[in-house]
What does this fold into?
Amino acid sequence: MVTKDGYFAHFYHGPTEAALMRSIPMHILIVMDISESMSGPKIKLAKELVKVILKTLDGKFFINLILFDKEIEEWKPPGASVEQEAYLCTNETIEAALSFVEAIDTSQTDESDLLKAVLKAIEMDKRVWTSGMMPDNALTTIVLVTDGRPGANSTLSDKEIVHSIKQANKADQIPIFALGLGFDANMDLLKDITVRTPGGVAENIIEDLEATPQMRALRLHLKEVVLKNVNFNYIGKDLRRQTLTKNRFKFFHAGEPYASSLMLQGLT
It folds into this structure.
């Protein structure tokens, strides 16, 4: 506990035993842009990033892969039923997903309906949870891989896209991580989308730099979330409750303070 000028910073570390701090299961929805603006180095980089993500997943994870331009394509591994919409990360599932990603190429249309793709991911997640296949302590995360450029025929403003995603995600509060590809990525849009989700981060991934280190926030999220829906309840007469800035968190990281620290004004 650190106090200064009427403020205190409180850091919750949790148990230190490794066995008690294992990462929780996750449902990962990878939403990947394949429109014409992603052609060339961008699609090559996008595929590399998705492969890195897939190779970090183990048996605690469930995945979906969604490709989009103006239309949406949902990946299904061999043998999956029509009704199934999330797939446990077995060795076979990951190998099938890696093969699918390797064969991806950009489409011939410059239209990119990012909004429709993200709304599709949110709807799919709702059905997955309704099906009962997801562990109770699992956390859903959407990973958006795109340059954020809608194309010349887009009729929606960035503000309208952000508002629609915020409304669709209002109940479930799914964290969204965006990997914005290229020097011309629309990072303003991607940051506006992610900042309105709990713990979401937008990272600009540049083509001529090594890809993996640029994904630091996402890689941390995938391996170090150990709790979800964390509530801090403070008691005592010295605390002014109306001055608490935040005491509820969608998830808690074992190794980083940014997602778990609280800055509260509560001293009298």
